[in-house]
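Quick one, T. Sequence first:
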Amino acid sequence: MDNRPIGVFDSGVGGLSIWRAIRKLLPQESMDFLADSGHVPYGEKMTAQLHELTSHIARFLLDHEAKMIVVACNTATVHSIAHLREKFPHVPFVGVVPVVKTLSSRTKTGTIAVLSTPATSKSPYLAGLFQQFAPDKHVVNVGCEGLENAIESGQVRTRSTTALLERHLAPVKSSNADVVGLGCTHYPFLRSRIKSLLGPGVTLYDPSRPVARRVRQLLVANGALAENTHPEFRFYTTGDAGIVRMVASKLLRIPVSHVEHVDLR
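Structure tokens:
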């Protein structure tokens, strides 16, 4: 038994989709969530910048006694998780990667689509996933510029976000794709909108539940499951605490009463 918290972080509030899945699967676990909103979006940063930012975040979470760290961000996982594992070799890290293997096994048309940030869409890591798991599939790879920021500001049901979605989904709609992977942890909060725009013939997949299952698997293997009858959930941000509190409450549909601003420098 280990009642210390699980540390979870993202470039902003998108990683709350992972937080939500972990809370549902492991209701006795406490969690510390850090939204690096002061440096969002990660999708437009260089790898060296991401290494520095994520190292500061990991150190902060470990200083708050995290027993495990979940990198609840596709871009940070793709560019930084190997660096973090090397820098903190005794810490279990769980990352988030686009569900290319699942898409490849589920498609009936032979065409798959992945929606992600511009940085993830252009990354060698994602190209490697396509080569490894979908070499015989037609791939529609869409870098959705601006979508992460829209969700960060809580614009889930606005006309401007709908216009962004319509533009980014156009190549998917004009293709024969029948499965779509949500390759950014922000995007599950737009799941119903995306599903509505793509229609009933397309199935969406996101990694939140598989990540939660991986967290449970590692905790069981390490004998580190918690038995908190009253788990604690603490929220931090490098950005505007008031905005993060408002947007987090809106996305999770539960009141997030307190978010603490932190400076990691």
